């Protein structure tokens, strides 16, 4: 990396959480660049996505994963921005041609957060609001009596609407990053044994063009190897399911020394069927174990039949 100055345009959604993530990435880049003798400035390029505008349509009806990132990725591909900062859980399993995930910074808490009640304290027939079919399926599997309502919007909007329901579900990382005070509410951090997180939940991913060698070199300096290994394993699971499987699915990987532990699920939408597999493998097998888990669920546990329904 050469010394001097560099101006980077960072594409992001306009939500408070997306901008927080972009600010965090920017600060990390400025810090590592300074230590390398480079003066770096970062400019945010705000992208209003169709998914942000159409709050009347459920996410799964708009195409599921990828609806929040495609237009942000387009800003990098067409030259309006140099990098794109995403929530890892929003990203499609396959990276578009011409782009590369150049950095996965340290991951935050990957778990889901039940707000308004604990799971055990929800009354029979309680209404839980969430826009995620993964969350609905797992809650229905644990508590078949529950009813569900759709919930869309940014963090503040969803929290404001929460008074209309018995509970809502959000990513713990979003609440932590925005430093939201929930001390006046009953909450429960969901154990992954009950609610397995979305692929790459709690992680950030920074993309740039695959031919931007200087940027790739710079972004590598904010990479967290353990977070990258976990995200790679989870994304390979989703990719092997068929890119962006429209069934409830989740995967969660953690690194323990040189051992990667990963658990994955595939479920029916109503939660009546929930398939679960877990593996512990050497860390260098991260991508292959994700694929192997998907094949196990599809070929030997009845997942392929779920996909045909």
Automatic annotation (TrEMBL):
* Domain spans labelled Porphobilinogen deaminase C-terminal: 229-298
Q: Which residues form the Porphobilinogen deaminase N-terminal domain?
A: 9-215
Q: Which GO terms describe its biological process?
A: heme biosynthetic process
Question: One MF term in GO for this entry?
Answer: hydroxymethylbilane synthase activity
Swiss-Prot/TrEMBL keywords:
Porphyrin biosynthesis, Transferase
Chain ranges passing through the membrane = none
Q: What class of enzyme is it?
A: transferase
Per the similarity annotation, which family is this?
A: Belongs to the HMBS family.
What is the protein name stated in its UniProt record?
hydroxymethylbilane synthase
